[in-house]
Amino acid sequence: MTRKQHDSDNETQQFFPVPNPNDYHVRSYRTPNSKGGFLQQHYITNQIVSPHMYIDMFQDIRLASENDDVFVYINSEGGWVDTGIQFINILNECRGTVYTVLDGKAFSIAATMFLAGPNKIVNSCGSLMIHNYSATVGGKGHELIQTIHGYNNYITDLMEQHHKPFLTDEEFDKVLDGKDLWFKSSGVAERLEVIDELNMVKELENERTQLKQVIAELNEELAEIEEALSPNNEEVED
């Protein structure tokens, strides 16, 4: 993961070249679907760059209706963290059914974007790579310390939210220590299948807990009714 910062002289420190507006970083298509809505297909096939290059896609996803299907195909080596964060926020706001698709490579922030999808599809050939972020900062000593500390906390929270439980606690700690973790498509699919099974178990356990609570409340109401109808509570007339 990488981030572009500005120094005190407002000179851009470039980790990546400034994106050329004539270069495409996402291509989008929209056709009617069988639910009375639209099928949106967005292809992210280049380095993740400045957010302004993705505004049209962001707007399409934000305006999706409940009848829309939104597919985001990711084939990217990663790039700007801030763009990825905005993408994740927009996915969370989307009212349509969203799928992120591993359609080649998803490295760095692109891997986080893929894992943040509510529904994930893994194509047969591809790879995913997770590592810690990179950044450049400028300023006075105390400003550097504050910036690094604040940014580290915020990015670590983001990574923990979306990389677990895909990564184990031990693997996540290794990433924070600087290790790059690589996964081929089959490994990604296997891990996601295990996560789906665990989520299903959790849902069933939550449903069981709720049903037990309902049963307990009904039993209390039944006990009160039976007590009210008990012969010992009937008024005896002389």
Report the biggest beta sheet as strand number plus sense, adding barrel if it closes.
7 strands, mixed
| Helical segment count | 6
The span between the termini is: 88 Å
Order of helices and strands: EEEEHEHEHEEHHEH
Low-confidence stretches: 2-16
By secondary-structure content and strand pairing, the structural class works out as alpha/beta
- Using only C-alpha atoms, the radius of gyration works out to 25 Å
Strand content: 15-25%
Number of strands: 9
Shape: extended
The residue fraction in helices comes out at 40-55%
Task: Characterise the protein shown here.
The chain has 238 residues and is α/β, with parallel strands linked by helices. Helices cover 44% and strands 21% of the residues. The chain has six helices and nine strands. It has helices spanning 55-62, 81-93, 109-115, 141-163, 169-176, 185-229; strands at residues 5-6, 12-13, 26-32, 38-44, 69-76, 97-107, 119-122, 127-130, 181-184. Strands 3, 4, 5, 6, 7, 8 and 9 form a seven-stranded mixed sheet that branches. A two-stranded antiparallel sheet has the order 1-2. Helix 2 (81-93) runs parallel beside helix 3. The termini are far apart. Residues 2-16 have low confidence and may be disordered.
Short account of what is shown:
This protein has 6 helices and 9 strands; from the N terminus they run ββββαβαβαββααβα.
Secondary structure: elements and pairs:
Elements: E1 5-6, E2 12-13, E3 26-32, E4 38-44, H1 55-62, E5 69-76, H2 81-93, E6 97-107, H3 109-115, E7 119-122, E8 127-130, H4 141-163, H5 169-176, E9 181-184, H6 185-229
Parallel strand pairs: 4-5, 5-6, 6-7, 6-8
Antiparallel strand pairs: 1-2, 3-4, 8-9
Helix pairs in contact: 2-3
